[in-house]
Each structure stands twice: as structure tokens, then as C-alpha cells.
Amino acid sequence: MKLAFRPTDSWRWYFDSDYDSLMLEVSPEMLFRSCYPSKMLIPDVFGEFPFSVSDATAYYQFFDSCQLLNLNDSQKIELSINAIVAANFLKPQMPKSWYFSQQITAYRPKMADIVVVNMQEGGQSVFLMVVEAGENASLCIVAQPTFVAMNKTFCFSEAIKVMNDRLMPISTSSIDDIHSKHPLELEAIS
Question: How confident is the model at residue 42 (pLDDT cuts 50, 70, 90)?
Fold first, then answer.
């Protein structure tokens, strides 16, 4: 795996009130804006702090898992950094498993697993990345462009907590099928 975007000790997190978002300063010329608004974040993030060694370790773990997905490098980087924010800085969430069908076999996910869930309505498969694995439910982020569930649209990197009995490990054929139907396009912020 070739990775041109590597964490350094100069990276830093800070909260930007103009964007109402946690930012990651990679260099003086490059900023990353997380997709989570302040109301979803824990109080500890409303300042400035370094990108830690554990953040860097998680970044590599999430980025490695992204290799299973049909994403370009910038999308993998975005998903990986949002995964760090979701895992470390989001307020606790309640499971919203009613969107997804219960599975026949039990699955115990691990952090950074790419999993698939099947929608209650229509049985569509959706990819998620596990950012915090719990005993009964896991915090995940959406690992595909979008999906609609019960008239709610979920976007790339959006966080959702799901009961583990809804999650399944992915298969290569399901990856190819979903991403051929939903190409992902992202835009830079100015």
C-alpha cells in the first residue's frame, strides 16, 4: 500500500467556530474539516490540541480498512480522519438499529471493520465502518456516498450507532455491486 499522506508531529486539531466544526491542520496550506457539527462533539474539543500518537495509529488502521472499498485516496483519507473524530470526540449516541434487518448469525465487530447492513425497507445493502466496537452495539460511520432509510438521507462519514446483531462482515461481490451503483464524488471546501 502506497500512502503519500502520512501523519506528522506538526498536525493539530482545533475547533473553528466559523465552520462550527473540528478542524485538523495538516500544514499551513492544508486543513481538513470534520463533518460533525459542534452539537455532536464532546466539550473537550473546543480548543487546540495535538494529533496524538494514538490518533496516528487509528488513522493507519482506518486507512488500511478502506482498501476494501472502491474509494480514491482522498476519500479514504477523509473517511479515516472522520473515523478518528467519531471514535474520540462524538458525544455518546443511542442505537438507531430500526433501519436495518436483524441477522441470523451473531457477529462481533472490531474497530475499523468494514461491515454491511441490510435495510428493513427493500433489503438494500449498505457499507459502514466500525469506529467503536461495543459488546451489544457499535458506533459506525457511513462508508459509501449516501443511502436513504425511512425518508432520511445518510451521507458519507455520517455517524450511526447500530446493534451488533444487524452487522455482517463484507464480501467482495457486495463491495463491487454497491460501488458500481453509487460512485462517490467529494468537493473541497474553499
Answer: very high
Q: What is the C-alpha separation between 3 and 104, in angstroms, rounded?
A: 38
Q: How many Cβ atoms sit within 10 Å of the Cβ of residue 14?
A: 14
Q: d(Cα 65, Cα 61) in Å, to the nearest integer?
A: 6
Across 94-133, b (16+ Cβ under 10 Å) vs e yields ebbbebbeebeeeeebebbbbbbbbbbeeeebbbbbbbbb
Going 151 to 138 to 62 to 180, the CA torsion angle's sign is: negative
Are 57 and 74 in contact by the 8 Å Cβ rule? The answer is no
pTM: 0.88
Grid-cell match 452487522, residue found:
167
